[in-house]
Amino acid sequence: MIAPKVALRGNAPVDALLLAGYPNGTMAETLDWQQTGGSSMVTYCLYFDTDGDGAVSPQEYEADPYGVREALGLGDTPFSGLDLDQNGRLEAADFAILLAPSRQQLYDAIERGDDAWLAANYSVRLTSAWFRAHRDFPPNRDMMTQLDLPIVIFQGEADANVPVQGCLELQQAFQQAGKTNLTVHTYPQTDHDLNYSTYLLTGSLPQGLADLFHTVRTLPVPAER
User: Fold this and answer.
1) Which of 124, 171, 152 is nearest to 24 (CA)?
2) Are 2 and 212 in contact (CB under 8 A)?
């Protein structure tokens, strides 16, 4: 979010923007998406949604094709224990219900500046001031089409931190504006850090990171640099 703003202000030389895990909206919108089931469904669809319809059926849940229920802490949890709206499908709405109490506690802690609560209860060490400052920061969707420098986005389709739909919406906005300086790469079964952890395990670069480094090597640099 900060890099496009720096490029737009023009006070520092920026030759190109290479963005991974791209957020198109505001921090508040991203946090709402995470806390109302969007993030949860990325994970559940990755492991259970074998027909690719964006939801999880009782049959898919029971099949557990990757054998991850224990690892996800589900154990003997029946499908009905997650299908909180009882419509026969696991969807974001179910996790919005499940997360409602902790979501409100999180939002309240941010508003009252309770960094001690955040340190004890939020999985990422972020302060209330960080949340509030980013909440007021202009979203990328309002800035990106104003830029004429090369922009390359690398986004995992299984990114549970920010929705992949954001970079696809940005791509459409560039097309509608008749601008050609944006390139978007998306990767199936790839997470927010472009599957960096698989590099640690295998020593082989995941495709997203390989493409990112290739772009760095081949991006033309202005002569004055």
Assistant:
1) 171
2) no
Q: Can you tell me the distance from the alpha carbon of 84 to that of 91, in angstroms, rounded to the nearest whole number?
A: 10
Beta bridge partners of 186: 155
Q: What residues contact 106, with CB distance under 8 A and at least 6 apart?
A: 35, 118, 121, 122
C-alpha distances in Å from residue 165, one per residue of 30, 126, 161, 201: 12, 25, 12, 29
d(CA 93, CA 191) in angstroms, rounded, equals 22
d(CA 169, CA 159): 16
For 171-183, what is each residue's pLDDT tens digit?
Answer: 999 999 999 999 9
Which residue from 184, 159, 143, 176 is spatially nearest to 24, judged by alpha carbons?
Answer: 143
| C-alpha span between 167 and 20 (Å, rounded) | 10
Q: What is the model's pTM?
A: 0.90
Please give the mean pLDDT across all residues of the chain.
95
